[in-house]
Design a protein that fits this description.
With 136 residues, the protein is mainly α. It has 5 helices and 3 strands, in the order βββααααα. Strand 2 and strand 3 form a beta hairpin. Helix 1 crosses helix 3 and helix 3 packs across helix 4 (82-92).
Amino acid sequence: MNFELLPQGAFSIRRNSGQVITGRFCMWSLDHFCRTKGIGDSIYDLLFFIQKPIGISAFADYIFSAVLFTYKNDISQCQVTRDDILEVMEEAGSTRYDMMAKMLNHSLFLYDGLIEDTKKKTGKVTVPVKKPRRAR
């Protein structure tokens, strides 16, 4: 299994089976993730959620939302499942936490934009935001 981080939040994962999974972190995928996790519409709700450590389940949902972006015009055509994402994590073995950290860091450009938009609209961000630590 290997993965490649591409420009503008895109990524490609090649599984041991040869299956290629592509996705992109963007506003659509972020919105989909928030709706599936029951995160409110407020940017503050999102900022509060992302400052906490992310668990395996939430990470799988986050990646799956980015994968679904590829099929946003017809999600029923997506042949990748959430279970496929969990299997990717299994295939990554001892490097899974490094992969998770790199994928999360790759998506952070979305939050930078949200934080700047919030600052412009309100003049401040009241929720402290911590970026994930880089894996060693």
